[in-house]
Amino acid sequence: MQDTSGPQGAALLSPSEAAFSAHIPVLVIGGGGTGLTAALAARQGGAEVLVLERDASALGTTAMSTGLIPASGTRLQSEKGIVDSPELFAADIVRKARGQTDEGIALALAQASARTIEWMIDDHQVPLSLVDSFLYPGHSVKRMHGTPNRTGSELMGALSAAIERRGVDVLTEALVTGLFADPADGRVRGARVRRPDGSTEDLSCDALILACCGFAGNAAMVREYIPEIEGATFFGHPGNKGDAIRWGLALGAAVRDIHSYQGHGGLAAGRGIPILWPLIMEGGFQVNVAGERFSNEARGYSEQAVDVVAQPGHVAWDIYDARLHQLMLEFDDYRDAVEARAVLSADSVEALAGLAGIDAAGLVRTVAEVAVLTRDGDTDRHGRRFGGTAVLQAPYYAVKVTGALFHTQGGLVVNAEARVLREDGSALPNLFAGGGAARGISGPSCWGYMAGNGLLTATTFGRLAGEAAARLLAR
Length: 475
Ligand SMILES: Cc1cc2nc3c(=O)[nH]c(=O)nc-3n(C[C@H](O)[C@H](O)[C@H](O)COP(=O)(O)OP(=O)(O)OC[C@H]3O[C@@H](n4cnc5c(N)ncnc54)[C@H](O)[C@@H]3O)c2cc1C
Hints:
With 475 residues, the protein is of the alpha/beta class. It folds into 2 domains: 313 residues, FAD/NAD(P)-binding domain (3-Layer(bba) Sandwich); 144 residues, Succinate dehydrogenase/fumarate reductase flavoprotein, catalytic domain (Flavocytochrome C3, Chain A, domain 1, Alpha-Beta Complex). Strands 1, 2, 3, 7, 8, 9, 10, 20 and 21 form a 9-stranded mixed β-sheet that branches. Strands 11, 13, 14, 15, 16, 17 and 18 form a 7-stranded mixed β-sheet that branches. A 3-stranded antiparallel β-sheet has the order 4-6-5. Helix 1 runs parallel beside helix 15 and helix 4 crosses helix 5. 57% of the residues are buried. The N terminus is likely disordered. Bound molecules: flavin-adenine dinucleotide.
């Protein structure tokens, strides 16, 4: 893994050291999906708010993502005749996490998710539609919502436009290097910001929202907490160094699921383009260089990262056909992969194996096995149940992929208002967290990540944190 460690935020600074130059009622650290939704909600709640973002633009992991946000009971689902409920959604989340997450938080997020989608559309003109062409692993019904091209950059563009319309300030190139707080009462008084020329500015606040994600961009923390994924490609935001976790711990906050993360078993090797999982869920599969399958790909793309990294050369190939190629063209990422010549195709399995450098006899055997499994609707030795899709037909397609780390899922324990909690369950006086900064709903490891868990906690905790911070100020 590339060492992306850089300057780290200091832990806590004493309020007596501060030279406050301005007072901002609500400070938001981090300008990704969590930060922008939190700022919009706080502003709508009547609070003055400032977003502090270390990069030159507010993008974060969110802009790298596919931008698909799950929600249950939205009017977009009803319009398509999809019957869903927060209870069903929460049950899906908890099942994927093997029961090892906070069921109350999963339900609270599921209950608030429809409002988040409709709030983004109605109040902030974010052009979301329901993704109804396929079902993501783990979800009982279709509940993903995305922008027209299904990209996080489009989502961030729409949120940034909303931020401008609402007159919310985003200070970029503003690295927060420390929080002013007295650990005795846990109240955050402000933040120190470092600018690219090395100068610093101290800003005081009444409430602070941590929206600066997790620690995937901190190689030392990845090595310490999730060594199993160290050999994978890092495909997340390098500016996310674990600052929220370190500040929270210094303030006495509880941290859970520190070993949890979102991996991906389908990053186009050498191209850095995610090949998304509809390809697998609709009948594609993965083989190694011997042409052999090695796991149940349909469990989910996150845990598949570890299985792919364990193959010779840390690589595998997605195998599929023209029907799936057509389906995948819905996604910008896939179109980029075609453009980058990552997608191979041939009229026969043998020719495809030759192009890809896979053992031909092995691949022929595997394609034939999968055809029988698909036709008969059978379950294979890895536990994957085939069927319900067409048998692959010539011409055949392949993309060489590797395993990747996208972002971490462990973090600060929060309640249903996104308030950060101490070990004894009491809330810190004025600290909130969401997205990758907060404990996710994916259990203790990579296998608990269900598609959409990332942006569900980013956008819904973001909105809830902003609303709650504004309410706190109004008291
Ligand atoms: C390729 C890819 C595809 C994905 N697709 C999906 C998807 O379709 N659906 C889904 O639900 N999830 C998806 N995810 C996961 C999702 O992108 C993340 O869960 C989500 O974006 C996290 O949002 P965030 O606001 O917490 O963090 P980010 O978007 O990373 O924002 C954090 C921001 O904080 C800033 N920051 C960090 N430290 C400081 C500091 N000290 N001072 C100032 N600023 C700081 C960073 O620069 C960054 O801009 C995907 C991830 C990847 C990589």
